[in-house]
Amino acid sequence: MLVLFIYLFLSLVLIILIESSYDELIIVRIFFYLFIYYFGYVFTLKKIFNLIRRVCCCFEFIYY
Q: Is Transmembrane helix found in the keyword set (predicted)?
């Protein structure tokens, strides 16, 4: 969970640096980017865990 907050904080800082020109919709844009980043991060973690689980199952199948 801590890693997730660090990840979101760093992306927020990056977005603020990129969007240095002031815009009325900057807050909406930041939350939109964070929403996308959050779901991308969670989806990537799920894919990695599924891959690890498949590899472990393959190794168990080979060993037994």
A: yes
